[in-house]
Amino acid sequence: MNGGQWYAVKPDDWDTLLNSENLVATLREQVNVVNRTEEPARILAPIASQEVWASGVTYFRSRTARMEESKEAGGGSFYDRVYAAERPELFFKATPHRVAATGGVMHRRRDSKWIVPEPELTLVINREGAIIGYTCGNDLSCRDIEGENPLYLPQAKVFTACAALGPGIFIAEEPLPSDTPIRLQIKRGGAEVFSGETSLLQLKRTPQELAGWLFRDQTFPQGAFLMTGTGIVPPDDFCLQEADEVRVTIQGIGTLVNTMD
Questions:
Q1: Distance CA 229, CA 226 (A)
Q2: CATH number of 19's domain
Q3: Which of 48, 176, 188, 216, CA to CA, is 20 to 30 A from 104?
Q4: DSSP code of residue 117
Q5: What's the pTM value of the predicted model, to 2 decimals?
Q6: What's the average pLDDT block by block, 10 residues per block, for the chain (261 residues)?
């Protein structure tokens, strides 16, 4: 999406478009404009061959939650230290086949008893390391597995349908406003069981800083997605259940909606 206008893009074209010199002009020339009132037959996740990475402990609320969940394992100080450190926590999150689209189903890891959604502003970065747009992201997290031992982070984060992106990509030449709100709503049986809100004002590191660290001594031939961390954490007694509906809304981008299997 650019300037309030939606564009339909075929998955096979996205790698080229993402890395074109003038993305907006290329979109206008090469793809069909979709009327915003039209209902597409199916919306795919806005990803082709890119990797999805994620940032951790970028909000103070996340830092506190991570310390609480891992204190019995003696790892609480790690999160406090990384929150204050120059180097951010960055980790691999998903390959394209592990990414759900809006309207799709996300997977609850079966050996986790404490799994929560993490609503995150997600950066769309081209091969040169430039942020060309933004989307909504849901970074499912198994808090019990990560809390047991920080070395279990890959297992707590990477599994079938562990990430979601969408509903589309907001193409922007300027950074999002610093007060952009991010909202999370979870429904169970049609009733709201949790809601929360934060804003980019609470993000300790700028998106540009996070993108710069990701591309430090890294190459991404087709670009990458980078989730920027969460500032909304459900209470410790909350765990996602089958058929829960999770809605991640970021002003100016839209709402990412997924159900849990």
A1: 9
A2: 3.90.850.10
A3: 176
A4: -
A5: 0.90
A6: 70 88 76 52 90 92 57 62 89 98 98 97 97 97 93 97 96 92 98 97 95 97 97 95 98 96 97
How large is the angle between the packed helices 23-30 and 11-18, nearest 10 degrees? Answer: 150
Contacts 24+ apart (CB under 8 A), 189-192: 189/243
Residue corresponding to tokens 């970021």: 250
CA separation for the pair 87, 52 (Å, rounded): 19
Structure tokens at 198: 């934060």
141-177 residues labelled b (16+ CB within 10 A) or e (exposed)? bbbbbbbbebeebebbbbbebbbbbbbbbbbbeeebe
Whole-angstrom CA distances from 251 to 183, 216, 243 are 9, 30, 26
Is residue 110 domain-resident?
yes
- The structural domain count of the chain equals 1
- 1 within some domain: no
Find how far residue 42's CA is from the centre of its chain.
21
